[in-house]
Design brief:
Length: 513
């Protein structure tokens, strides 16, 4: 059995929770890089290659597992472990649990307490801590070890069950299972996640009193607890203590976390010092680390450092994923450096990376924020001409900008594009203020045919309302058309005439006289 692999999984259980403690731009993927995935090196068809494409979390992997065996293929424990590992990394927890349960049910291997711990953790993620409790209580005594106890504690912590966590921790202490940093780290995560930051340093102190050496993550959680309450002296105190520990190898991420708090507090000198120390400890091929530092320098308004680090990243990392471009573009837009952003967009377009609408959308938003709506529109049109996906939200943002500038024809065109991209139940709804402004303008200025077409398309996005009827009435009256049918439809639709409707009709009658 590859026990080291499952130890890694157990460690990942806790480290995943660290993503809730800090800004994602700093720690979201500290230890687990999304740049590496397991693939079959032989090039032959593997079980992994059958399961990996089943990305829909509602798709069961059990039929693929059964068919693999029915077709006479061998099932290797190591490969199943790697599959579970990869599925967990991709947050496909339900499928990872299916593989683990299938292994157990089919007797592929005899589960040790380590395998039980992994399955227990997955059960907690997928079905909740109550199901994890049942699984734990049904384990034989020899399988209720520090690993399975720790996995159950992690389930309680993840679901913020403070009382259960404390009670379970006490049992672990009585059984001698609270001898690793992981246990105490879980408790510090719990207090952080429930906002009881003042209790985190106490847990760190208890660790040291019990001769449990804090690890990097222990210190980082404590630094975060001080930073969360703007206690920058506390941040510095823990950082200096960490630097003095002979068993600790200082990492770039801890300095980056400290730098983030210094930046928020306006302590520029301390922030720069921490950022320099972070860079010194950065693996020069770690694109993720460069991204974090770039973001932090951007938040300080330091264009020179942003461009310098981007240059280093480009020379050190052979491949740049879309996340790298997104980080750099966000930083440049934050700095107001749209010309530099345009250069990066061109680099991305020639990179060969798969299309990701988030990348150009950053620049489109940047143009809009600067009032450069023509540039934003031109970029959207260019993408559509190339057959690339754009979003109704992007078009709606540009439409709002044009309306605020009084350029109503352009606002209408952009809103038409937004509506044409609307997909039901996908979250986007047009801005009511913008729609109201467009309808009002169309009622006064638009051609009847144009107004009718716009209102008809709008009906697919929002229910027919009184203002839409009023717009149609105004357009028809201006075109010399009767509106009795419209008024009848309005009444049938239970949209009674309001003051605006009566005002429109009264004006018509006066004109006739």
């Amino acid at each position: 059995m590859d026990s080291r692999f499952f130890s890694l999984l157990n460690r990942l259980s806790s480290l995943r929770e660290s993503t809730q403690l800090f800004p994602e731009s700093l720690v979201g993927k500290i230890t687990i890089s999304n740049r590496t995935y397991y693939t079959s090196r032989s090039g032959k068809l593997s079980l992994y290659n059958k399961i990996s494409p089943l990305g829909n979390p509602n798709t069961s992997v059990v039929p693929e597992l059964d068919n693999w065996v029915l077709n006479g293929n061998k099932v290797r424990v190591a490969e199943l472990q790697r599959i579970i590992h990869d599925l967990r990394k991709r947050k496909r927890f339900t499928q990872a649990l299916e593989v683990s349960e299938w292994m157990n049910k089919k007797g592929i291997c005899v589960f040790s307490s380590t395998e039980h711990a992994v399955q227990l953790d997955l059960i907690g993620r997928v079905r909740g801590f109550l199901s994890a409790e049942i699984y734990f209580n049904n384990l034989q005594n020899h399988d209720q070890t520090d690993k399975t106890y720790g996995a159950l504690l992690n389930c309680y912590v993840r679901q913020r069950q403070t009382d259960k966590s404390l009670s379970h921790l006490q049992k672990m202490k009585e059984m001698g299972f609270a001898s690793s940093p992981l246990t105490y780290n879980d408790m510090m995560c719990l207090y952080t996640n429930v906002g009881q930051y003042e209790k985190v340093p106490d847990v760190l102190a208890e660790m040291k009193q019990n001769n449990v050496y804090p690890d990097n993550f222990s210190y980082r959680i404590c630094i975060n607890s001080y930073g969360a309450v703007s206690d920058n002296e506390g941040v510095e105190k823990v950082l200096k203590e960490m630097e003095r520990q002979p068993h600790i190898s200082m990492d770039w991420n801890t300095y980056a976390v400290a730098a983030n708090f210094y930046i928020k507090a306006g302590l520029s000198d301390k922030a720069i010092e921490a950022l320099k120390k972070s860079e010194e400890r950065l693996d020069k091929r770690d694109g993720l680390g460069y991204n974090h530092l770039i973001s932090l320098y951007a938040s300080m308004g330091n264009k020179a450092e942003v461009l310098r680090l981007w240059g280093l990243e480009k020379s050190a990392c052979k491949k740049h994923i879309n996340r790298d471009y997104i980080t750099m573009l966000e930083s440049l837009v934050k700095l107001g450096e749209l010309e530099e952003a345009e250069k990066v967009i061109k680099e991305w377009e020639s990179s060969g990376n798969c299309y990701d609408l988030r990348v150009p959308n950053i620049v489109i938003i940047g143009y809009s924020e600067k009032g450069l709506f023509e540039k934003a529109q031109a970029m959207l049109e260019e993408l559509m001409e190339k057959g690339k996906l754009t979003t109704p939200n992007s078009w709606g943002t540009v439409a709002a900008g044009y309306m605020d500038k009084g350029e109503m024809e352009k606002a209408v065109e952009c809103m038409k594009a937004a509506i044409s991209l609307y997909v039901n139940n996908k979250g986007w709804k047009p801005n009511g203020r913008v729609i109201g402004g467009i309808l009002s303008w169309l009622g006064e200025k638009g051609r009847r045919e144009e107004v009718e077409a716009f209102v008809e398309s709008l009906r697919a996005v929002i229910p027919m309302n009184r203002q839409m009827y009023n717009t149609l009435i105004m357009a028809n009256i201006r075109a010399g058309k009767e509106v009795d049918e419209l008024l009848a439809r309005m009444k049938a639709d239970k949209r009674d005439e309001d003051g605006e409707t009566k005002k429109i009709l009264l004006g018509t009658r006066k004109n006739k006289k």
